[in-house]
Amino acid sequence: MEDSGGGGGVAVESAAVDISKQEVNASNAEEAGQVVTPWEVAGKDGGKIDYDKLIVQFGCQKLDQALIDRVERLTGKPAHPFLRRGVFFAHREFDKILDAYEKGEKFYLYTGRGPSSDALHLGHLVPFMFTKYLQDAFKVPLVIQLTDDEKCMWKDITVERSQHLARENAKDIIACGFDISRTFIFSDFDYVGGEFYKNMVRIAKCVTLNQVRGIFGFVGEDHIGKVSFPPVQAAPSFPTSFPHLFGQRKDVRCLIPCAIDQDPYFRMTRDAAPRIGFLKPALIESLFFPALQGDSGKMSASDTSTAIYVTDTPKEIKTKINRYAFSGGGDTMEKHRKYGANLEVDIPVKYLSFFLDDDAELEEIKKEYGAGRMLTGEVKQRLIEVLTAIVERHRKARAGVTEEMVNAFMAVRPLPNMYG
Amino acid sequence: MEDSGGGGGVAVESAAVDISKQEVNASNAEEAGQVVTPWEVAGKDGGKIDYDKLIVQFGCQKLDQALIDRVERLTGKPAHPFLRRGVFFAHREFDKILDAYEKGEKFYLYTGRGPSSDALHLGHLVPFMFTKYLQDAFKVPLVIQLTDDEKCMWKDITVERSQHLARENAKDIIACGFDISRTFIFSDFDYVGGEFYKNMVRIAKCVTLNQVRGIFGFVGEDHIGKVSFPPVQAAPSFPTSFPHLFGQRKDVRCLIPCAIDQDPYFRMTRDAAPRIGFLKPALIESLFFPALQGDSGKMSASDTSTAIYVTDTPKEIKTKINRYAFSGGGDTMEKHRKYGANLEVDIPVKYLSFFLDDDAELEEIKKEYGAGRMLTGEVKQRLIEVLTAIVERHRKARAGVTEEMVNAFMAVRPLPNMYG
Description:
Chains A, B: One of its GO terms (cellular component) is cytoplasm. Chains A, B: Belongs to the class-I aminoacyl-tRNA synthetase family. The structure is a homodimer. Chain A is 49% helix and 10% strand. Chain A has 22 helices and 9 strands. In chain A, the strands form 2 sheets. The first copy, chain A, has a 7-stranded mixed sheet with strand order 3-4-9-8-5-6-7, sandwiched between helices. A two-stranded antiparallel sheet of chain A has the order 1-2. In chain A, helix 2 (22-32) packs parallel to helix 12, helix 9 (159-175) packs across helix 22 (403-410) and helix 17 packs antiparallel against helix 21. The longest helix of chain A has 24 residues, at 376-399. Chain A is globular. The relative contact order of chain A is 0.14. Chains A and B meet through helix 8, helix 10, helix 11, helix 12 and helix 13 of A and helix 8, helix 10, helix 11, helix 12 and helix 13 of B.
């Protein structure tokens, strides 16, 4: 899974015959004025991403309140704030997963990460925090793919460096609190082979060069490693890629929580699925976590001033938020008191919407700040407290992750009570 | 390794910057009037392959008498008939292999096969018979790749069918007499992964989409499995792909005996090698074994009347040779006695040149037949004897190959005395 780099087009999921007309869809994307691929996220004229338009462009569905209510009913737990507040806002056949779950059928979760730097930022944690909630709420097994091969191929780093990053990132992921009795973490360099490789080949046979050029925007100057990669990210969507978990069962459903920029991979995967005898994986897709400087796409892992890292000290968090977090407050105290804050563009409020658990407090802040009765400094102060607590909790948890624990999570092994 | 299918261009081995101009080289190939790729072998205007021109087109070297003499001197054994008679006629840096061997440095052999049908024909045996000679003469380890993934991707067959064919073909290969203490046979579906996969990724990073389109003739409608495959065939050229044999040693030389249609894969591999810290693999390359109907390229595995199969009965061999083997003899007895046979086009003589061990007898037949004193029927009779003996020997040897022996050859294991 990628989060920066070269360009590409987008396309509506479709029958195999339609997907070969990706150039047309790519043009549609240009007309829509925004480009979202695994390597590029850009709103129209450098502005905000229009997520409603993206749903139409991509052909996925909006995750509505009825579905959220159903999740609460089926799991007997309150929905995660990321669900209640529309952070995970779109889906593909998530309703079918719930239908199956209701009938007592099993499914598994699949998410992943492209290990690109030693430290993760808060945006990187979003899918993992949400996946942990799903795992706990539905009591299902989870596979987490670390695409060290992809990072080695897209970035100018060696196999060894990429493997090192994968292992370091695994520690951060484990620190999110996943249940070792239901979680298998693997790196591609370790795990590609056997049944997984066979599924890669089966998938690759279903996708033409023209199609990947349309879906991912590959060009003739790209190396063939890039062209070879999509089946690697697709393969974990199919249960037989994990014989130690699912044996030869082809009928176990897969649900993929991810940021919506990964959708192109799984449109391709869903097109291939029925042709090779698998169920289409379902998706539940999130917004991008905004940069401190404002809400025009995803954060950069390379510019440390754009994000709060899980390695930041309390002092760094305080400084970054006070200095960089884009404020929607009035230019002057007088104007602020008179007109209130513009919550649509205010980063402290957006960050609190992700990470402040208490719905009532969040509403209160929005009301008071929006009315100009609360000041930016006060909101930032609350955000600093919330994020410092999260980062500190993560820091402590990560410090407790030993090499042995990493080995244990990454061991190819059955998970005896994975649905228990 | 392939032996039939779609088209493609050819190119001279070159620096990375030059190989991206493959279209130019492909045009050169068209000018030369013949096309030789792993999937297509066609002489000018459907005629014979001009091998001297092919050497120039591909940029490899002619294997001359001085080199053959040197092989005899270094191994203390007479050169194999395939060497003496120019069946293996071209090479890349085979001289460097001999230099290294002379200095006491180690090398290993790598050859392979794309399992496409249950039965092998005699042309399929040629590289294996020669590889066995090389293994015995130089006392070196050998890796044999069965590209079941490639066959699954190029042909419309399932993973399981392709794996089955690989295993059946392994029995024929083992029946050629390879030394189990020095031979590792592997199928890609079994073995891809780990260090092998890492080398695939390293190679893939060195080759652009434009380059493989130029080298192999891939087009937009081809599926991406084809585009992904060249690094799979390239990886065994590098010793670290076999950690159970060579550990982490990057300096072990590789010699690849193969038919010259496989040259495009290894031009690509040789271009990549120095960029990822490996020695370029050396090649020793053969002519194509002619079809019974005449010498205009390779045989077809799908038309059983074009070839002698290792499963043919003595009666079938006799019938096929008498009925189909193209004769260069005179149209009438009178003309034959007067003008003699045209040995240039005569298939019985060509087949004897491959498989009749006795140089003196072969020369005698050529002399007498060429002068019209020997008749086609007599030459065919001798060929029937020779091939029946070879096929019977193979049949018996193959019948003795058990599933346990296949498992033993294909076990991922050290070869303790591989240079002993």
